[in-house]
Inverse folding.
């Protein structure tokens, strides 16, 4: 779970970085999008690396979801009689939201792929073969931006606990200082990635990024 | 010195016919004994297992002469062990390793919960790692002297010798003892001795040692040599042909009465301090296992020897269920006092001027001050409270507490240094009392802590019933009339790891024994007796709860058989116990059924046995008209009020044989002979 | 003071349980929580109602026998065992909900008593150092660095009460297992069996039906001995090492 999670973190970080190209304008963004398809040529065919990454991501997704389902199932079986009253005293909201937050993110990914990759739905009815314009059209729509921001909140929380939890699972937090650092890193990664992702939609909606 | 096959039987024969007018009956100056009429005199008791020869070769010789059991035969030899404290768990683990078929019983839900776990201070071992002049002989000497010359010297010497192996064993098991920066084990001096021989794991030594033994036990469970029976309580000893052959136990969850048969039964069931209701013992500590064996013929030795610990947190009200001990190291820096005037007792202690305070230990014992031995500190606390100068809440008509004041220590050392040294104890005190001991003086009061008395055992730890071995606090053997600090853990583990495996093997070398099954008439009878007793308890259906009887019994014991005992008080105590016991069997109210978890029923059975024990304790205390160790008889004191031992008349172990209900117990005396140490009277002034 | 108690009552493992309400008055703030229950039980006994079964033994916070879920918190609102919780923590008129540890690996025996034998079986699977009695070298034969000895001690203070399991939203006993693996793994004596120990103990843990750890941290907050979460990291580290070593 930790390893697949770290692959996702690497991915979303790169993805977020790529998204920020939107601030450089239409051509820079579209060149970047095209470059993703041509990188690795001629050793690899066009989109070769992209498909390799996609395969790795799908693989990680299968592992990540499988582990999550197993853990969820075990937790459910471990306590079939629930407490009449149960208080949580030390856990972060993030840690308790991992499962439903994860489901939210999964649903979001499906929509996100339909929106930008597979289906390429332009809610404004505009062009779908121009990534930059598709992006601006999408986030110029307030409810889509809200949807994305909610997803980014979920992503941030997932990352906040995920980073710390991965450090624990990998056995890297063997003392109090390491635990503090892993928690701080979790917060940092969450803020940077979820925050970074959120910039583009917000600036589109605010009219800073335009076609 | 060879272990003869019939030694055990010989000894039983020797002690079976009580003679009322035995010439051995002792009473000073031929006056009738204080307890005349309460008991009958029996023949002297001789421990034939004690090897002779130079004291430091005795254990070696005994081990060499103990017969062997072939590994292939061990699979056919079985051992039952009752109790999973240090003594029981270590014995079960070791006998399991040896290949015997072991069944281990405890009333708790896990073997790890036995009350050895609560021991704070440490464990003594004559390692002399500090090079401060310690040796096996010095530990032996200190222990016999600490026991006020009422222990058996051969046993104590053996204990001192194996103390070194205990530490090796525990370290190898992973017990995390305190260490120095060089990585070697740290030691401290404890209980007023002048050498540093106490190994410790912060204030939780008992816990760490018990977990070591528990893990060794669980390892054998995994290996299939030991089977554990948790939430099982032994309610009767099964005897067939004069030998211990098993136990009747109740499964405390289902209520089922089970028969477990074996070739040897080991009782490691701990002490009976709960006869006082309030003690530092755990709620479940009881005498039932040993008392049932006593009723079947095992002698009870020195039952009146009780250790009362001076630094416990006082009773806060009528609802109190137990007392909590704080390490007596507190007396190193705290000053003990009470107000000089009764009218100051309910004042805020900080408002009582220095001149109106009575630092009574410093006043009476200027040389030792607050560091006088446990029994003296305890008795003087009781005295000042009896004078009406106790502090703290009124419980009944008295305030039962004295101040332990760190104000001066905080001024002298600084708050940080005090916190460094005693922080965990202060926290514990604050947790329980809700008072901040850095601001307000602590209140302390003595509480029953340990019993030196227990079933009589020979050098092999075998009781007067062949095949019944008794170990740890449940036996009487090593501490005499008072136990030295940090010695209980040593004895429990020493018995279990190193003594029993040798002596039980010697007994089992006679095997394989005749097979018996659950239909044997003696087994059936033992089982029927248990069922009948349970049924009786459940059908009395009176008005009073078990706890109310227990509380009242405890009060009688504390009042008349506590820190200071008088002939008059003990006689009164016996009368009160007898009438309370009579009421118990007429008026106790136990609800629920026998077929399920029933904590009232469990307690009822234990309290019923406490009544009988309590009476015997009073008789023992009454007959012993001397002050020794933890036993202070007001009739036997020096002119300035100190304990006066009477070696001429009482240098013996009082081993009591049970007679039928209503008949007086029979006293057998085992005379104590000291060849390796000279008897001295102690003085602390 | 006076308190209202809502207490889980269940006749035995097979029966269905339910919450019952009791009022207790004349509660002294100096009473321990369990003494307050003693008072209630005395009253129930007098009224002819069977007393409430709950476990306790040493009542000084070290044996690990007691353990109640009090107002939704394992051992109640203070960082201590149930037996060391005192009524001064509560206010006059409070309603207090009392339940047993809820874990399918800890079946209810009766009322508030549960069976924690699963923890013993985890220890049986490897929570020890294999050394036969009498086979030990001198205690000073192997020096142990003080920091390692101290850490081993700190985590060896676990009392096996099961509060970690009770508090864990996943019902995991990882803190318990981690504490033992860390205790023995810190010491030179524990190295020979280190790989085997962690694999077997985790295997037994899972077999008993405890949940998996998701590093939420409720366990360590409920732990009366404040065993830190590091031990779970250490548990994982040792597991990875064992797997690398082909165990």
């Amino acid at each position: 779970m930790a390893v697949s999670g770290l692959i996702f973190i690497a991915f979303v970080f790169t993805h977020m970085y790529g998204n920020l190209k939107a601030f450089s304008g239409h051509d820079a963004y579209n060149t970047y999008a095209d470059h993703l398809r041509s990188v690795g040529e001629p050793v690899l065919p066009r989109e070769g690396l992209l498909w390799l990454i996609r395969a790795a991501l799908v693989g990680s997704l299968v592992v990540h979801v499988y582990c999550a389902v197993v853990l969820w199932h075990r937790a459910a079986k471990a306590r079939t009689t629930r407490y009449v009253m149960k208080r949580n005293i030390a856990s972060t909201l993030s840690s308790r939201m991992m499962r439903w937050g994860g489901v939210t993110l999964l649903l979001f990914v499906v929509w996100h792929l339909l929106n930008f990759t597979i289906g390429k739905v332009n809610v404004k009815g505009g062009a779908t073969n121009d990534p930059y314009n598709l992006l601006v059209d999408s986030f110029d729509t307030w409810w889509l931006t809200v949807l994305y921001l909610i997803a980014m909140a979920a992503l941030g929380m997932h990352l906040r606990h995920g980073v710390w939890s991965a450090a624990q699972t990998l056995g890297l937090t063997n003392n109090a200082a390491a635990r503090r650092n892993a928690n701080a890193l979790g917060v940092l990664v969450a803020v940077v990635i979820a925050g970074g992702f959120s910039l583009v939609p917000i600036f589109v909606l605010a009219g800073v990024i335009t076609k | 010195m060879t272990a003869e096959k019939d030694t055990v039987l010989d000894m039983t024969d020797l002690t079976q016919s009580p003679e009322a007018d035995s010439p051995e009956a002792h009473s000073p100056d031929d006056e009738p004994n204080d307890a005349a009429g309460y008991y009958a005199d029996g023949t002297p008791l001789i421990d034939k297992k004690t090897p002779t020869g130079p004291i430091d070769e005795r254990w070696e010789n005994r081990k060499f002469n103990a017969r062997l059991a072939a590994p292939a035969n061990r699979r056919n030899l079985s051992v039952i062990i009752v109790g999973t404290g240090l003594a029981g768990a270590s014995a079960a683990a070791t006998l399991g390793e040896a290949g015997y078929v072991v069944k281990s019983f405890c009333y708790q839900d896990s073997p790890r919960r036995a009350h050895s776990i609560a021991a704070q201070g440490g464990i003594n071992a004559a390692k002399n790692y500090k090079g401060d002049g310690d040796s096996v002989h010095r530990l032996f000497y200190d222990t016999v002297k600490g026991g006020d010359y009422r222990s058996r010297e051969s046993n104590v010497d053996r204990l001192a010798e194996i103390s070194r192996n205990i530490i090796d064993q525990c370290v190898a098991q992973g017990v995390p003892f305190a260490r120095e920066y060089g990585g070697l084990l740290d030691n401290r001096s404890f209980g007023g001795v002048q050498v540093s021989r106490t190994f410790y794991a912060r204030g939780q030594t008992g816990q760490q040692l018990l977990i070591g033994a528990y893990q060794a036990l669980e390892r054998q469970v995994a290996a299939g040599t030991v089977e554990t029976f948790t939430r099982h309580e032994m309610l009767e000893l099964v005897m067939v042909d004069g030998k211990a052959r098993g136990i009747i136990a109740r499964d405390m969850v289902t209520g089922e009465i089970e028969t477990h048969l074996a070739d040897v039964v080991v009782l490691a069931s701990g002490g009976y301090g709960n006869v006082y209701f309030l003690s530092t013992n755990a709620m479940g500590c009881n005498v039932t296992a040993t008392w049932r064996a006593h009723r079947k013929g095992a002698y009870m030795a020195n039952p009146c020897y009780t250790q009362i610990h001076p630094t416990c947190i006082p009773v806060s009200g009528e609802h109190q269920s137990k007392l909590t001990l704080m390490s007596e190291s507190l007396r190193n820096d705290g000053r003990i006092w009470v107000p000089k005037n009764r009218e100051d007792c309910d004042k805020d202690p900080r408002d009582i001027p220095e001149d109106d305070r009575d630092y009574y230990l410093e006043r009476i014992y200027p040389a030792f001050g607050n560091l006088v031995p446990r029994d003296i500190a305890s008795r003087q606390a009781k005295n000042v409270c009896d004078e009406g100068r106790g502090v703290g809440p009124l419980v009944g008509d008295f305030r039962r507490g004295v101040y332990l004041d760190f104000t001066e220590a905080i001024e002298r050392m600084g708050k940080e240094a005090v916190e460094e040294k005693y922080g965990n104890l202060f926290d514990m005190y604050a947790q329980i009392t809700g008072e901040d001991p850095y601001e307000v003086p602590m209140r302390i009061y003595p509480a029953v802590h340990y019993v030196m008395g227990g079933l009589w055992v020979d050098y092999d730890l075998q009781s007067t019933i062949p095949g019944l071995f008794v170990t740890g606090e449940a036996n009487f053997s090593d501490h005499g009339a008072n136990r030295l600090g940090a010695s209980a853990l040593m004895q429990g583990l020493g018995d279990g790891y190193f003594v029993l495996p040798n002596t039980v093997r010697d007994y089992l070398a006679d095997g394989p024994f005749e097979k018996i099954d659950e239909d044997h008439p003696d087994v059936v009878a033992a089982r029927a007796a248990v069922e009948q007793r349970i049924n009786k308890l459940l059908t009395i259906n009176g008005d009073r709860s078990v706890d109310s009887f227990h509380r009242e019994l405890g009060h009688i014991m504390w009042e008349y058989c506590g820190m200071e005992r008088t002939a008059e008080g003990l006689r009164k105590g016996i009368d009160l116990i007898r009438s309370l016991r009579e009421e118990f069997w007429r008026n106790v109210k136990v609800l629920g059924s026998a077929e399920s978890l029933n904590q009232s029923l469990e307690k009822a059975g234990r309290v019923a046995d406490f009544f009988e024990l309590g009476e015997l304790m009073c008789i023992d205390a009454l007959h012993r008209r001397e002050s020794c160790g933890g036993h202070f008889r007001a009739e036997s004191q020096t002119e300035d009020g100190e304990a006066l031992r009477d070696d001429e008349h009482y240098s013996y172990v009082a081993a009591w044989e049970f007679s039928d209900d209503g008949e007086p117990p029979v006293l057998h005396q085992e005379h104590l002979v000291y060849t390796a140490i000279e008897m001295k009277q102690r003085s602390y002034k | 003071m006076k308190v209202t108690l809502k207490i889980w009552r269940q006749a035995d493992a097979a029966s269905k349980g339910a919450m019952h309400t009791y009022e207790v008055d004349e509660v002294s703030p100096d009473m321990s929580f369990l003494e307050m229950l003693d008072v209630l039980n005395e009253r129930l006994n007098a009224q002819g109602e069977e007393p409430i079964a709950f476990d306790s033994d040493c009542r000084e916070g070290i044996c690990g026998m007691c353990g109640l879920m009090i107002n939704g918190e394992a051992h109640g609102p203070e960082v201590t065992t149930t037996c060391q919780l005192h009524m001064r923590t509560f206010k006059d008129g409070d309603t207090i909900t009392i339940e047993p540890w809820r874990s399918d690996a800890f079946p209810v025996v009766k009322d508030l008593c549960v069976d924690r034998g699963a923890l013993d079986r985890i220890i049986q699977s490897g929570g020890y150092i294999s050394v036969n009695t009498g086979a030990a070298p001198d205690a000073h034969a192997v020096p142990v660095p003080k920091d390692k000895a101290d850490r081993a001690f700190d985590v060896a203070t676990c009392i096996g009460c099961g509060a970690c399991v009770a508090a864990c939203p996943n019902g995991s006993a990882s803190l318990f297992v981690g504490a033992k693996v860390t205790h023995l793994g810190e010491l030179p004596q524990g190295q020979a069996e280190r790989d085997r120990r962690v694999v077997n103990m985790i295997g037994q843990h899972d077999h008993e039906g405890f949940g998996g750890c998701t590093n939420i941290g409720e366990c360590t907050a409920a732990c009366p001995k404040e065993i830190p979460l590091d031990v779970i990291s250490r548990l994982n580290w040792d597991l990875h090492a064992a797997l690398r070593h082909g165990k």
Notes: The radius of gyration of chain B is 24 Å. Residues 599-623 of chain B form the longest helix (25 residues). The domain at 308-449 of chain B is CATH 3.90.700.10 (Flavocytochrome C3; Chain A, domain 1). Chain B touches chain C through 82 residues (CB under 8 Å).
